[in-house]
Design goal:
Blueprint: E1 2-6, H1 13-21, E2 38-45, H2 52-61, E3 86-87, E4 90-99, H3 116-120, E5 126-132, H4 151-171, H5 174-184, H6 187-197, H7 204-217, H8 229-243, E6 246-251, H9 262-270, E7 275-277, H10 280-291, E8 295-296, E9 305-306, H11 308-313, H12 316-330, H13 336-348, E10 351-357, E11 375-378, H14 383-390, H15 392-396, E12 398-403, E13 408-410, E14 420-426
Parallel strand pairs: 1-4, 1-5, 5-6, 6-7, 10-14
Antiparallel strand pairs: 2-4, 3-4, 8-9, 10-11, 12-13, 12-14
Helix pairs in contact: 1-10, 4-8, 5-6, 7-8, 10-12
């Protein structure tokens, strides 16, 4: 799972990235601070209790485990995650985040960093546009104090650049590609588009969505090799929308009047996206204080408590600054940045979780680790699909699987449900 952070320069993409991934990166109040992309991992809580909660209940009722002790640092969790962590059955799973250079008008023609970073985004499952709702920067990212670009303008410009970028790829040898339809039939168009766009992650689904949008919006378009700019724009827009669902972090909300983002919110939601007001700077400050052990703070929440170390080290002024920050974050609903990433993963991209295990009785791997993996899979993934998600060899050698919760044997085509614990039997 990969999510790209995009937007014009100087809006807070790197600040957002740093708050989400706890990775230190360059942040500064001028355009093009970031040139080469930053890649890191954000840890996202599952929306339901980790399956280790069920296992604990079973063990407790069988008399094989004492109930949770008051001083248990994991507050009841008994799984052994290979990656991430689990406390209070709150299991964290990894989502790769990519922070790229800012995008300026004309990027698809090579302005600013040009197409380079557009290809950095190629393999992303979704994009978050970081928008500066404080108006403190113009459309090129230069600091202006106030009255810079407006949120809707900023969003429309980004969509326009992405569309133009995709159109550029399609257009380059359109005439030749489209004429293949004459000898090879309709399917040749799909093949041509897939050839052109597979590098940016397009599949037949995306391409077909684009083509049917041209037929419904331009009924008189005629033969494809005669399509003009309008038809190709529709085609690119639709492919872009299918390929890169875009959500918005309405950032620097701490310096904006409430509601400045309302119009953009309506627009984004109308196209199926999500907008959440954020202050990446505030979240970064809390996540840094937490990493330094000064406060106990769980990402996605606005409240925190001062830790023992914090009690002795924080000055009065520092405490006041931190609680001011938390108060700011409390004003907005939406769960901040972690909440936004969670919404994208579980609601927009419909990802479900499955726990592959090697022993269906004890829910462990070959080394006795309890529920070591929590894998995000698209809704509708089959047992065999899950096997491939774990390892190609496991998919190739797939024989059957066992649903470890019920003990039932399931076949290759069985749809894995959210929270399933699955033992895969495969030829080795
Ligand atoms: N007030 C306020 N300032 C912020 C917020 N987020 C970021 N900033 C400031 O905005 C400026 C730009 O932040 P960056 O994270 O470097 O922005 P960027 O989008 O990565 O910029 P480029 O890499 O140049 O495209 C810095 O001065 C940040 O401290 C926020 O939520 N509120
Ligand atoms: Mg940056």
């Amino acid at each position: 799972m990969r999510i790209g952070l995009v937007g014009k320069p100087n809006v807070g993409k790197s600040t957002t990235f740093s708050a989400l991934t706890q990775t230190p990166v360059d942040i500064a109040n001028y355009p093009f601070t970031t040139i080469d992309p930053n890649v890191g991992v954000a840890w996202i809580p599952l929306r339901q209790d980790c399956a280790c909660a069920t296992l604990r209940d079973k063990k407790e009722s069988d008399g094989r485990l004492e109930s949770v002790s008051v001083d248990d640092p994991r507050n009841g969790s008994i799984c052994n995650p290979n990656t991430g962590s689990c406390v209070s059955h709150n299991r964290l799973v990894p989502v790769t985040m990519i922070d790229v250079a800012g995008l300026v008008p004309g990027a698809h023609e090579g302005r600013g960093r040009g197409n380079q970073f557009l290809s950095d985004l190629a393999r992303c499952d979704a994009l978050i546009q970081v928008v500066d709702v404080s108006g403190s920067t113009d459309i090129e990212g230069n600091p202006v104090g106030s009255g810079g670009s407006n949120p809707v303008e900023e969003h429309e410009f980004l969509l326009g650049e992405l569309d133009a970028w995709i159109r550029g790829i399609i257009e380059s040898s359109w005439q030749r590609g489209a004429r293949r339809v004459q000898s090879e039939g309709e399917k040749a168009l799909v093949t041509y588009l897939l050839d052109q766009l597979s590098g940016i992650g397009a599949s037949e689904l995306h391409v077909s969505a684009g083509l049917s949008s041209v037929s419904s919006n331009h009924p008189d378009a005629g033969v494809p090799w005669n399509w003009g700019k309008e038809e190709l724009t529709t085609l690119s827009q639709e492919i872009r929308a299918a390929l890169f669902p875009i959500c918005v972090a309405a950032n620097k909300a701490d310096r904006a009047a409430d509601g400045v983002w309302d119009e953009l919110q309506t627009m984004v939601e109308a196209s199926g996206g999500i907008l959440v007001p954020t202050s990446a700077e505030a979240e970064l400050a809390l996540s840094r204080a937490s990493a330094a052990g000064l406060i106990d703070f769980r990402a996605g929440q606005s409240s925190f408590t001062i830790s023992e170390a914090g009690e002795s080290k924080l000055s009065g002024a520092q405490r006041e600054a931190l609680s001011k920050i938390a108060n700011t974050l409390e004003k907005w609903s939406g769960g901040g940045l972690i909440g936004l990433v969670g919404d994208i993963v579980f609601e927009q991209l419909n990802r479900r979780v499955a726990y592959p295990v090697q022993d269906e009785t004890h829910w462990v791997d070959g080394d006795g680790n309890i529920l070591p993996d929590a894998i995000l899979i698209p809704e509708g993934t089959t047992a065999k699909g899950l096997a491939y998600a774990v390892h190609t060899d496991l998919g190739d050698g797939f024989i059957r699987a066992t649903d470890a919760r019920s003990g039932r044997v399931i076949g290759a085509d069985h749809e894995v449900q959210n929270g399933d614990i699955i033992r895969i039997h495969a030829k080795t």
